[in-house]
């Protein structure tokens, strides 16, 4: 597995530990349906939280959350819609971003709640 994939997987695992420690129930990790994918699906306070995780070694070139482009938002919202339909979920949905920066074992985590809203097409 490529080094960036290993770092990304470690970042997602760290994000899960963070969410669980903060009272979130994890429903799915890396949920896929066709070409649609969601990093983490969590639930807290009767709300479904779709989490996009961005892991980087450092912030030298850009903030990790800057990688969540309008196209990525559209794909994430589309995947969330597929998830809601597939599992027949009837809960309010929130879209968060968790940034994980550093090396395995010494990550810095930032949780951006309501990081974006579904675009109007």
TrEMBL record:
Stored Gene3D superfamilies: 3.40.1350.10
Keywords: Endonuclease, Hydrolase, Nuclease
Tagged with keyword Nuclease: yes
GO terms assigned for molecular function: endonuclease activity; nucleic acid binding
Sections of the chain in a coiled coil: none
Record carries keyword Hydrolase: yes
Similarity field: Belongs to the UPF0102 family.
UniProt cross-references to PANTHER family, sorted A to Z: UPF0102 PROTEIN YRAN (PTHR34039:SF1)
UniProt protein name: UPF0102 protein SAMN05444405_1099
Organism: Bacteroides luti
Phylogenetic lineage: Bacteria, Pseudomonadati, Bacteroidota, Bacteroidia, Bacteroidales
């Amino acid at each position: 597995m490529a080094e960036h994939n290993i770092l990304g997987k470690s970042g997602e695992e760290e994000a899960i530990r963070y969410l669980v420690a903060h009272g979130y129930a994890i429903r799915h990790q890396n949920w896929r349906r066709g070409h649609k994918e969601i990093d983490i699906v969590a639930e807290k306070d009767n709300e479904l939280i779709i989490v996009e995780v961005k892991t980087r070694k450092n912030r030298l070139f850009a903030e990790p959350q800057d990688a969540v482009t309008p196209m990525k938002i559209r794909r994430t919202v589309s995947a969330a819609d597929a998830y809601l339909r597939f599992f027949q979920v009837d809960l309010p949905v929130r879209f968060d971003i968790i940034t994980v920066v550093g090396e395995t074992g010494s990550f810095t985590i930032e949780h951006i709640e309501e990081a974006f809203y579904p675009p109007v097409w």
